[in-house]
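Table S2 (text version). Query chain:
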Amino acid sequence: MPYATQRFRPAFIRLMLVVGLACSSHAYAEWEVQTISADKKVVIYADTASLKREGDFVFAWIIYNRSTAAPDGAISSKALNQYDCTQYRARAWQQSFFDAPMGTGRRLPPRGRSTCETGESLDITMQSQCESPWLPIQRGTTGEDLLRALCVF
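Corresponding structure-token output:
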């Protein structure tokens, strides 16, 4: 093997290992559009790489992306939600609001909800103090679109 090839081979192998690890499902979210509001002002994404199913329940990281800012300045929010596929209801475990798209930018103050703030991890973990009440999902809404899309996983 030529000297130049031998010299660069270990560096190339390390580079490929780093690239491979960075591209694994745990390193990057796979945000996929699930539904768009009727007025086209909110696009809802789910991280399909971290979906977790337990019986009739689906746990998913969701991003709500607005085309214009809410009154408090929020352009997006990121939430860990739980969906009950048989009872047509959902609840949030963690949620944060941001002044930029896709859960980026400056984190805004919480909106007085009992859910915990999201962290950087997209692991599906629940803490009892973060549990919020179940809310019914209305038929013909983006909530129903989202529930139906996630419950087929």
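Notes on Table S2: The longest helix spans residues 3-22. DSSP finds two helices and eight strands in the chain.
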